[in-house]
Amino acid sequence: MRGQWGLIAGLVVILIIAVFAVINVDPVQVNFLFGQGDWPLVLVILASVLMGAVTAGLVGMYKIYQLQQEIKQLKQEKNDHGEDNQKRRKDRKKETPPASPEAGK
């Protein structure tokens, strides 16, 4: 259900951007580092939205990568501590002498 609401919200945002872009079709001057040109404002808006989405996606992917590395590290530490605990239990069993049947009488 959450995925459906996300899809609906995304479609609403896309619709708002499309309406905003269609009503702004006047040509505007765009200055690049290497030159300038006259582009319709709709293309400038759509290109800006696309660049923002790509940037947000890349930042999100980087954050996911960092979290996956942290999870991997924590799992390794957990396994290391588990192995240490198993070794300690085995060592304790070796240190404690078996109870003799005469001790209980």
TrEMBL record:
Keywords: Cell membrane, Membrane, Transmembrane, Transmembrane helix
Pfam families tied to this protein: LapA_dom
Region: Disordered, residue numbers: 75-105
InterPro entries: LapA_dom (IPR010445)
Composition skew (Basic and acidic residues), residue ranges: 75-86
Keyword Cell membrane included in the entry's annotation: yes
GO CC terms, sorted: plasma membrane
Stretches that traverse the bilayer: 5-23, 43-65
Annotated ranges, domain Lipopolysaccharide assembly protein A: 24-80
Identification of the protein by name: DUF1049 domain-containing protein
